[in-house]
Specification:
It contains seven helices and no strands. Helix 1 packs antiparallel against helix 2 and helix 4 crosses helix 7. The chain is an all-alpha fold.
């Protein structure tokens, strides 16, 4: 049975349940868009926004989509304010295998490719590729038209593909 916010009683218990269930999701989105250097501050800022917005959250809405939106907007706002900071720190181990040398090389190539993308493209790649949201879900999360998400995803994939090709990586 899916968790609803009403199941958890008062405000603090409700927030704690949301935090425990969704902090890894928010952290991953923030990490993929902004990197690791300011990650803890961004997670804190995201959950302050969630805390403040929780009383007005509509029970019939999808909380996961709401949290994706808050985390993504927090990340994009941070990127706009810190436009000079381009580096994206290494990604965590990718699913589907042991840490190992091949995985480290794969992460390094993905990280370098992500550095070439705009924050908006990283947001779309994060939601559609890493988090496996549909175009429609990503569009709702980002409050964009589906065509805009498709376009950003297309250009982001093309840029990543070009980067991989230039570096002799076949996908």
């Amino acid at each position: 049975m899916p968790m609803t916010l009403k199941d958890n009683g008062g405000g603090q218990d409700r927030f704690q349940a949301v935090y425990e269930k969704h902090a890894p999701l928010a952290r991953a989105v923030l990490y993929n868009i902004c990197g690791a250097e300011h990650l803890d501050d961004l997670v804190q800022e995201t959950f302050i926004k969630i805390w403040k917005g929780l009383p007005g959250f509509k029970e019939n809405a999808d909380i996961k989509t709401w949290i994706y939106r808050i985390a993504t907007n927090t990340a994009l706002d941070w990127c706009r304010k810190n436009a000079a900071i381009k580096a994206v720190n290494p990604l965590p181990d990718l699913p589907g295998g042991e840490g190992g040398e091949a995985n480290a090389l794969h992460r390094d190539m993905v990280t370098k490719g992500l550095r070439r993308l705009s924050p908006e493209q990283r947001a779309v790649i994060t939601l559609c590729v890493f988090e496996e949201l549909t175009i429609k879900e990503a569009a709702q999360t980002l409050n964009l038209a589906e065509g805009t998400v498709k376009s950003r995803l297309h250009y982001a994939r093309a840029e990543m593909g070009k980067f991989f090709q230039e570096n002799g990586v076949t996908v």
